[in-house]
Amino acid sequence: MAQLPVALHISEDTESDGQEPSPCNEGAMHTSFRQLIQEQSSLVEAAAGAELEMPARDREPPEPQQDDEHAGYSSATLRILASMPSRTIGRSRGAIISQYCNRTARLRRRSSRPPLQQLSHAARPSLRQHHLDTDPAAATLEEKRSLLVKELLSLSPGQRSHMLLSVPLSLAEKRTLRQELSGQRGSPREDTQRGAPFSPCGRSKYHIILGCRGLWYGLLSLLPAVQPWHHALKQIGSRFGSSVLSYFLFLKTLLGFNVFLFLLLLVFVVALQAAYPPAPASHQPFTGLELLTGAGYFTRSLLYYGYYSNVTLNEPCAARPNCSAAAPPLPYNMPLAYVFTVGVSFFLTCILLVYSMSRSFGESYRVGGPVGDLAIKVFCAWDFKVVRKRWVKLQSENIRTQLKELLAERQSRSHPRSPCRQLEHVAVRLLAWGLSLGTVLGCVVAVHYFSEHMHAVQQDAGSRASGERRQEAVLLVLPLVVSLINAAMPHLYNLLATWEKWDSPVLEVYVAICRNLVLKMVVLGLLCYQWLSRKVVCSSEACWETCVGQDLYRFVVMDFIFTLLDTIFGELVWRLVLEKRLKRKQRPEFDIARNVLELIYGQTLTWLGVLFSPLLPAVQIVKLLLLFYIKKTSLMQNCQSPSKPWQASRMSTVFITLLCFPSFLGAAIFLSYTIWSVKPSETCGPFQGMETIYESGKTWVRLLEKSNPNITWFTWVHQYLLENTFFLFFVSGVLLAVIYFNIQVVKGQRRIIRLLKEQIANEGEDKIFLIQKLHSVYEQRERRS
């Protein structure tokens, strides 16, 4: 049946301000549809035919096909839908060139660089209000291209390159435009016509600018290679996914914190004490056992608290009682530098942790759901700038792993269970939590009694004057037992998780982290109580701070040894057993929860030992560097990808939060109590002879006020800011408020995104309604005809 021709007249408003219309102007789209429906209704009532005039394009849109989505629509309706600007711009090169020619002309008339807000980033912008393409006497494609080239030649080089980058054309089309621009720009005749010939100085300046720009872009391309472990992290993420990658990113973050802490202590404490060493003491010979025990040769060294002096380092008469030399203009008081460096380093670390946690809260929220992310990954994930074979393979593996994670996330949605099944799951999980908490209690009691027993054994060995090697070997027993407990209990928790049968691997990791965290933090709390109670297993050293530093050094070293043993036997040997003996094509999986808790545990030990062993961050740096390469090699050679892929979008936030509150907060409380309340040793260390470590600051401020009355403001700062607890509570409240406000901002962004999604859904329903109205108009017309 022949269709009656109708006339479509969609109004186009011209803008007087020269700004480009937004491609998302829904009001104009609805106005066009409303006018179209009214016009068609009037035509149906009048039964008057008119000629159907399609909007002028470079080529006629093909006859639309009857697909499932638009089944039942008439051909005229589908033709109108196919000729909409949003559906034709993507396949019409002439329309694109016309749009950017008009934009270039407006830019030239304004004679200023366009702000970025006015440049559309849409791949298919609307062509309404672009008079060149809607003109019935539209030019051909070649004429449009030549006109665009002329308009581009009138712009500055920066505006020209920016405009070419924003044109949604293929690389071949852009390359052709650049060649035409370079050919016409190099013509002297064209330069003379434009009235801007290049002088020798201008050409030199132009080439210098191009050279500097190329050098800058070359340096920017080298920036990823300068970042530590850039290629290794990409390789891990592409092969094992974001869940395993989160462990190595967290390890890299801890390495940055330790480097920062070590540099502060090295510059203000360790290096200056090494430059002005105290009176030499009798050193024990180095036997190699000190690398495990931290005692012996290392006892009287820069590694521990007892080596540092309690005098002004650069004072000429510090070591000579009868001396009349003049005092230095800038005295360096070691006790004050020691306590202030530790305090400032903890304060700056707290700020960095709060900043990292606040930023992670914003980055952890992924805009869009799994369906939207899946579409983005399928259609927009490939980077066409990658040309090398190795990087192409790496990127394809990365995209494949991300698609697996997204599909697994969609499939892992919880299915409704019956009440009996829910009750069974709740009972199993309560029983598992009861068993885990019972094992924690048993481990803590065992560590307490074993520590008391080792303290008695050490005192008995000291009274009997037994061998020095035997005494140092006894020092390793308590760290050995604690590290053995920390290495064995996570495997028990994995068995409990297998019994619980968690549906989501994310929840399984969170539960394992909580159980391991409770165990490690309770054991560390018991050890801190024993250290402050002076019930510490120590060698013949009289300085209890040095004994605590040695104990913490042994715990760090023993933790690294057990991590290495667990990697060898839990991953390498188990892979060989699976492949050689059991003949299975299966490999062990990387245990994220256990490995992350080992990192948090080691970092907590480092923060606890900063006051007693200033070089302990250096030991932690070496440990983290070795751990990265050992774990990476074992991961690549012995482990397989997770059997249940899952996205670790919020894992970094969880790791930083656990590092901040249980770990850093506990270490800060422990050191604050030590500084303010615990009496230091009488015969060693920078604070010998004082009631508390904090008294060194008061003593120094009084001496400074007597020697120089012009700096009374510093006394006021110390009295009202440092001694006043209100200031400390105020700073803590500000930091907590920053965290709270960032969380609220993220929640507000989530709510806005949800409202925008609802608005988009409503707009889609409105469009469906308008299309149905348009279809009904054509149906009425067909029936009447």
TrEMBL record:
Q: Which Pfam families match?
A: TMC
| Ranges that cross the membrane | 247-276, 336-355, 472-489, 509-532, 552-574, 605-630, 651-676, 726-746
Q: Which stretches make up the TMC domain?
A: 543-649
InterPro entries, per this entry?
A: TMC (IPR038900), TMC_dom (IPR012496)
Q: Where in the cell is it found?
A: Membrane
Q: Which GO terms describe its cellular component?
A: plasma membrane
The alphabetized UniProt keywords are: Membrane, Transmembrane, Transmembrane helix
- Does the record bear Transcription in its keywords? no
Main subcellular location of this protein, as a coarse class: membrane
Region ranges (Disordered): 1-28, 106-131, 178-198
How the protein sits in the membrane?
A: Multi-pass membrane protein
The record's family statement is:
Belongs to the TMC family.
Question: What protein does this entry describe?
Answer: Transmembrane channel-like protein
The organism of origin for this protein: Apteryx owenii
